Amino acid sequence: MTAEAALTKMSYVLSKTDWSLQKKKQAMMRSIRGELTQPPDPEREYNSLLQNISQFLNLTHPIEVQGLQSAISHVLLSSSIFHNDLNRLVKLCDSGINIHAVNSDNRSLLHLAVGGSHIDVIKFLLLKGLSVHTKDSYGQTALTEAIRHERQDVVEILVENGANLELNTLGDFLTRCAANGHLKRLQLFEIAGADLNTRNKSGRTALHEACLHNKAKIVRYLLSKGANKMCADTLGITPQDISTKLQDPEILTMMSADHNNHRSGP
């Protein structure tokens, strides 16, 4: 307490002529907010919360308490990310909560933050060392999650922090995007470093699927990026073969415009 604050408090207390000496002593011993109030201790508050809930549930075994701690931590962290509450997330981290834990689907906090496109939270988690390579139970990384949500700003942040695409699943992602007409996602895959001629397990490329499902906009985009029209799948079928077979006028015109591609096998 500063000297000025102490004198002000003493002057106020002594001016209370209707107070007893004992009451004045007690008033002098109480802290003045802003002078003697202790700053909150996040770790102590979190441990106190765990202790109170453990006592309420009558949990005594260490394994039970550990399970409770894991469940509470996940709920508190997930809630902070869902509400884009960076201040609360920082406070929870300061309390000693393990932010590297994953949920039952093996989704990390980074997956959750990317799903909500919370830029400040994403940057904070990356600063705290969360891995950009963690895959959930469905094979999704934070990067493919960002692409699925069509957030270029998030994709660029993740790539800058070392995120990359796995070749063994890339072909499946690209062909699904093409078949479903997800142009923006294909563009983001390219920004993330994808080779748009990457094949799936059947030897097919995104251009195969775009021609097969009559996705003219996708075909136009892929051709503008150098997609190979003569790339044969495991059955020897090329995108050019598919467009010729289906005879979609717009796609057929685009596919016939350039004959620079040469047939290549799977």
From TrEMBL:
Query: Can you say what this protein is called?
Result: Putative 60 kDa lysophospholipase
Gene3D superfamilies per UniProt: 3.40.50.40, Ankyrin repeat-containing domain (1.25.40.20)
Q: Where are the ANK repeats?
A: 105-137, 138-170, 202-234
Q: Which organism is it from?
A: Rhodnius neglectus
UniProt keywords, alphabetically = ANK repeat, Repeat
Q: Is Repeat found in the keyword set?
A: yes
- Pfam families with a match to the protein in the record: Ank_2
PROSITE patterns this protein is in? ANK_REP_REGION, ANK_REPEAT
Q: What InterPro entries would the database entry show?
A: Ankyrin_rpt, Ankyrin_rpt-contain_sf, L-asparaginase_C
